[in-house]
Amino acid sequence: MPSSLDWQHAQNVLCVRLDMLGDVLMTTPALRALKESQPGRRLTLLTSSTAAVLAPLVPEIDDCIIYDAPWMKATALRTDSRPDFAAIERLRQGRFDAAVLFTVFSQNPLPAALMCLLADIPLRLAHCRENPYQLLTDWVSELEPVHLIRHEVRRQLDLVAGVGCRTANERLSLRIPAEATRCVQAILRELGLGRAGPWVLIHPGASASSRRYPPERFAQAARILAHDHDLPVVFSGSTGERELIESIRTASTAPSHSLAGCLSLAELAALIAQAPLLITNNTGPAHIAAAVGTPVVDLYAQTNPQHSPWMVPHRLLYHDVPCKNCFQSACPQGHHDCLARVPPELVVQAALELLRFDEPEALELPDQTSPLVGEGWGGSVKAIEPRSGVPPSNPPPQGGGKKSASPK
Fold first, then answer.
1. Which architecture characterizes domain 178-383 according to CATH?
2. SS3 call for 101
């Protein structure tokens, strides 16, 4: 088996992360570890067309190759194998010294490992449940979920640590272009918002239906925030989510603003960075908020336990259900109780608790080094209190900064 000494000489490294935007964001601390462990190392991200838009905002990524893999559920049905052979040839032309295959524990790394083998990439690292024989040169035995469940960020940091790559800064990495910040600040001024007083950003969409808090409950929370607490509410979302957001705004019977379909990804990140607070589902914007230091009320469907906001003040809200950790994109029971039974009043309470802190550092942050199984996942409706555990030497997240807001 190759040793970490072989990896010390790997200058041109392929990083394979084929799923969604949030998954790539949660991999960025591991990318930083790879980058910092060898001066001059170049990282190329192989990822889906959905997640590729994030690559220009991650300073550790030098290049990006788009590949929609047929073993990923979001990929459209193939008519032939030409895209796959073309991808292998593109990887061969890249002359990579090594490949790191980042997966969640429910994914099989071997299809991607075979591609990298066929592309003549000499070093190949991944977690794997079964013996990969020649497909992987560096094999980390898959321990999840039987023996432990780690946060997704910790899982990927542990993977690259196996070949000697570590970093002292374990925060998510995201760099917001100055132009995007200026554009969003101008929009907020037009809306009469800014740093003069608190306001709330709500992002109600999610790619998986099982992770969406009911629209009528978002509407009730928005109404209470606006009417009872005089907090301006702004909605964000994609063009395809405009109808959803307009239905929520109408049902709320409260004044609000919508920027759905109006922003690029960089501008959405800038908006989240400017917001005193984000309320959202377990979806990409929750991880953007973690990257830029914005507190999050995360309506956290119990489909899986390892994707909570990383190293940022937050509240996880859910209703405990016996069918938790189903890992399904659509609720297999059809009741959505893990989210549907979270009362809007609790969403408002969590929002006000986070807004009352003048400095994010005043909150104790979650212990991100411990397995997430058990603690905080029992009982009925939960507002998870963060706990200590963030290394004090970590610098402030890029694009974030101090946030000061007190509800009226």
1. 3-Layer(aba) Sandwich (3.40)
2. strand
